[in-house]
Structures are given as C-alpha cells and as structure tokens.
Specification:
- The protein is mostly helical.
- The chain has a domain of 62 residues.
- Helices cover 64% and strands 0% of the residues.
C-alpha cells in the first residue's frame, strides 16, 4: 500500500496573515484627543456667564435659602436653557428640601 500524502500544517505566523506583525490600533483616548476641537469663543463666553449666574445660587444654597435659590435657578434656566449645572442645582435643592426634618405630629396638635 502506498503511504497517504498529508498536507503540511500551517504555522501560526502563516495563519495570522503571513507572519506580518500588525500595529495595534491607537487607544480611544488618543483618538478623541486628536479629533476633539478646541472650545469656541461662544462656549467660553457661556461658561463665564454661567459661572457669574451660579455664584449667587451657590451662596443661597449654602445659607439654606432654598426659595430664593429656586427663583435664581428658574431665571437662569429661562435665559440659558437646560444646562447641566443648573439641573444639578435644582436636584440639590429639591433633594435637600425633601430630606428636611418634618415637625413632630404632637407639635402640630398644640
């Protein structure tokens, strides 16, 4: 009987593309840093205006004047729209108001 002819086994280098070493793709952060445009002058101007608008809001929240803080936040939202920092201020105000201690029921009956 004649011996069977077998194919030679392919090496790992041949299977992976002929032994060529491919460079790894750049990290996502590096790509984002290259493709991100610098902030426009309008963005910088808006940031400064929001900073000036939020300072009195922070001061009102620090001294626990929640009603004036809500009025200032509403005015800022009317002028600048739903900016994330203003939404955080509203969340903080409402969250704090909901966690204030309630009066004792026996005090209400007096």
């Amino acid at each position: 009987m004649a011996p069977k002819k077998t194919k030679p086994k392919a090496s790992a280098a041949a299977v992976s593309g002929g032994g060529e070493v491919k460079a790894a793709p750049p990290p996502v952060a590096a790509v984002a840093a290259v493709t991100t445009a610098p902030p426009s002058s309008n963005d910088v101007k808006l940031a400064f205006e929001l900073e000036k608008k939020t300072k009195p809001i922070y001061e009102a929240l620090d001294v626990r004047n929640y009603k004036p803080a809500l009025k200032l936040i509403a005015a800022a939202i009317a002028k600048y729209g739903n900016q994330p920092i203003l939404l955080v201020c509203i969340y903080h105000t409402h969250h704090t108001l909901l966690l204030l201690p309630l009066p004792c029921p026996s005090d209400l009956l007096r």
